[in-house]
């Protein structure tokens, strides 16, 4: 009966990709340019199908959407949710009754995944729109299936961003590389590869002071959050010199406390240490 009702709905002629579902940053559904409100269960159903592009068997789908609910009750809830999605052409079923979004539904996550796959082949001199890689899947939603897919996409987008930053450095586009790497660090402050990428971009930019400050910030973050010794793999980015000893033990003096040629340490009014290149710093106490 559900399938018959859906087949009776027809999409108006002359429309191209009439429906759009977004799950990056927040959930929205638009149809023919207008926002479509959905109830809680219908919204969860559409979001699940947007995150899982393949057709989903009904029993498994119901179990994921209503974990802990008896199978028969979960199936009834699924049927009710399907009926509540009163948007012609938004849902489709295959011959076995499995559910998916319609073929003409535009999903922002699908576009982002295409970008992740294509990015390694995009020349570094080009500037594709990377904004789809700047948001997580449905932040704030706590269902188990969302958590898994959110983390999977997060790892993919961070890796793609880091790799792009490295390629931009190689092409001499250091400012763009720094901007990308900063985004990766904001998304995952404790991720070593993101910090390494940002430090490399700063060094390529010639901004040694900021590179050192970034290194020290990462050290302090690890010590304060997990009590871990910072990974010494980052030491290779900052070559040893008489003025800049390489750290090999716990609880050693941070690099920014070492006197570097052309750099000196100052404290701002809040007591935070900063490295500056020569000259005086207005408002800073010595």
Secondary structure topology:
Layout: H1 2-8, E1 19-22, E2 28-31, E3 34-35, H2 40-51, H3 58-65, H4 71-84, E4 91-93, E5 99-101, E6 105-107, H5 108-118, H6 144-170, H7 174-187, H8 192-205, H9 208-225, E7 263-267, E8 273-277
Parallel strand pairs: 1-6
Antiparallel strand pairs: 1-2, 2-3, 4-5, 7-8
> Total number of β-strand segments?
8
- CATH class of the domain at 2-107 equals Mainly Alpha
What's the overall average pLDDT, rounded? Answer: 80
Number of helices: 9
Q: What fraction, in percent, of the residue positions are helical?
A: 40-55%
Give the CATH superfamily of the domain at 2-107. Winged helix-like DNA-binding domain superfamily/Winged helix DNA-binding domain
Keywords, please?
disordered N terminus; 4-stranded mixed beta sheet; disordered C terminus; alpha+beta; Arc Repressor Mutant, subunit A; 286 residues; 9 helices; two-stranded antiparallel sheet
Outline the structure in words.
- The protein is elongated.
- Helix 3 packs across helix 4 and helix 6 (144-170) runs parallel beside helix 8.
- The protein contains 9 helices and 8 strands.
- Helices cover 44% and strands 10% of the residues.
- It has a domain at 2-107: Winged helix-like DNA-binding domain superfamily/Winged helix DNA-binding domain (Arc Repressor Mutant, subunit A).
- The protein starts with a helix and ends in a 9-residue tail after the last strand.
- Mean pLDDT is 80; it is low at 1-15 and 241-286.
- By secondary structure, it is of the alpha+beta class.
- A hairpin with a 2-residue loop joins strand 2 (28-31) and strand 3 (34-35).
């Amino acid at each position: 009966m559900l399938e018959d009702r859906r087949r009776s709905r027809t999409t108006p002629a002359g429309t191209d990709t009439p429906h759009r579902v977004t799950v990056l940053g927040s959930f929205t559904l638009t149809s023919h340019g207008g926002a479509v409100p959905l109830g809680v269960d219908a919204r969860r159903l559409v979001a699940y199908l947007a995150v899982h592009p393949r057709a989903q068997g009904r029993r498994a789908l119901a179990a994921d959407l209503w974990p802990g609910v008896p199978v028969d009750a979960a199936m009834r809830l699924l049927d009710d949710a399907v009926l509540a999605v009163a948007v012609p052409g938004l849902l489709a079923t295959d011959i076995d009754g499995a559910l998916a979004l319609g073929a003409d539904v535009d999903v922002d996550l699908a576009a982002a995944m295409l970008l992740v796959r294509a990015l390694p082949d995009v020349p570094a001199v080009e500037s594709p729109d990377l904004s789809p890689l700047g948001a997580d899947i449905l932040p704030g939603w706590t269902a188990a299936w969302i958590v898994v897919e959110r983390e999977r996409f997060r790892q993919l987008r961070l890796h793609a961003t880091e790799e792009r930053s490295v390629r931009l450095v190689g092409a001499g586009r250091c400012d763009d590389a720094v901007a990308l790497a900063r985004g990766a660090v904001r998304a995952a402050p404790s991720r070593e590869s993101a910090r390494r990428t940002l430090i490399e971009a700063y060094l390529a930019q010639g901004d040694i002071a900021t590179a050192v400050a970034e290194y020290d910030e990462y050290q302090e973050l690890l010590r304060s959050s997990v009590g871990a010794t910072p990974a010494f793999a980052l030491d290779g980015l900052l070559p040893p010199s008489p003025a800049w000893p390489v750290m090999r033990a716990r609880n050693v003096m941070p690099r920014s406390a070492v006197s570097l040629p052309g750099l000196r340490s100052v404290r701002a009014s809040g007591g935070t240490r900063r490295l500056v290149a020569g000259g005086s710093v207005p408002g800073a106490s010595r």
